[in-house]
Amino acid sequence: MAPLFHPSRDDITLAGVLSALADPMRLRIVKGLMEQSDCMSCTAAAPCPDIPKSTLSNHFRILREAGLIQTTKKGVEHRNVVREADLNARFPKLLKTILASAE
Amino acid sequence: MAPLFHPSRDDITLAGVLSALADPMRLRIVKGLMEQSDCMSCTAAAPCPDIPKSTLSNHFRILREAGLIQTTKKGVEHRNVVREADLNARFPKLLKTILASAE
């Protein structure tokens, strides 16, 4: 399996972040991850239980490649966490403001 | 010519706004419009002078249909203004925070 791609902090772009969050499902995934103190598996972070795995995995890939989440393989699971420090360093208050708008 | 479509305040969605702003050119257009006290024509609000008119008009259509700008026909010109009050009512601080991130 190919290693998972994560952009470096400096390569995270505003257009990429906005585009990745321009989807209600992905907004809910990020919100869900933010409310956890620990990493979450893709299935645990799914906004509803009946989303096909391929759809879910596509959403996580888009979030990861835009620099919104960090994914770590743990056995057969992928564990995810929001890259809050990187995002806040690049775009202060952006993530918080967008998520507040999603309420 | 068909009348220009503008969504009502309540029909402006977060995903639509983020998607419309997920483009460096459109971010610059909105930024330019915000810095003016008055409406601007599409040409005057263009971020650079050599953008084809069709490209520019497509960017303005996307911004308009997402509820970011209000366009009024004035003779042969289209005059544009950012729908700040509507956007701030729907998503407090969102536009300002995104534009600050674009600096």
Which short descriptors sum up this protein?
homodimer, 103 residues, alpha+beta, Arc Repressor Mutant, subunit A, three-stranded antiparallel β-sheet, 3 strands, globular, transcription (chains A, B), ArsR-like_HTH (chains A, B)
Account of the 3D structure:
Two copies of one chain form a homodimer. Chain A is an alpha+beta fold and 103 residues long. Chain A has one domain: Winged helix-like DNA-binding domain superfamily/Winged helix DNA-binding domain (Arc Repressor Mutant, subunit A, Orthogonal Bundle), CATH 1.10.10. Helix content of chain A is 46%, strand content 14%. The first copy, chain A, is built from five helices and three strands; from the N terminus they run ααβαββαα. Chain A has helices at 14-21, 24-34, 53-65, 84-90, 94-101, and strands at 40-41, 69-74, 77-82. A three-stranded antiparallel sheet of chain A has the order 1-3-2. In chain A, a hairpin with a 2-residue loop joins strand 2 and strand 3. Chain A is globular, with a radius of gyration of 13 Å. Chain A starts with 13 loop residues before the first helix and ends with a helix. Chains A, B: It comes from Bradyrhizobium aeschynomenes. Chains A, B: Residues 6-103 form the HTH arsR-type domain. Chains A, B: Keywords: DNA-binding, Transcription, Transcription regulation.
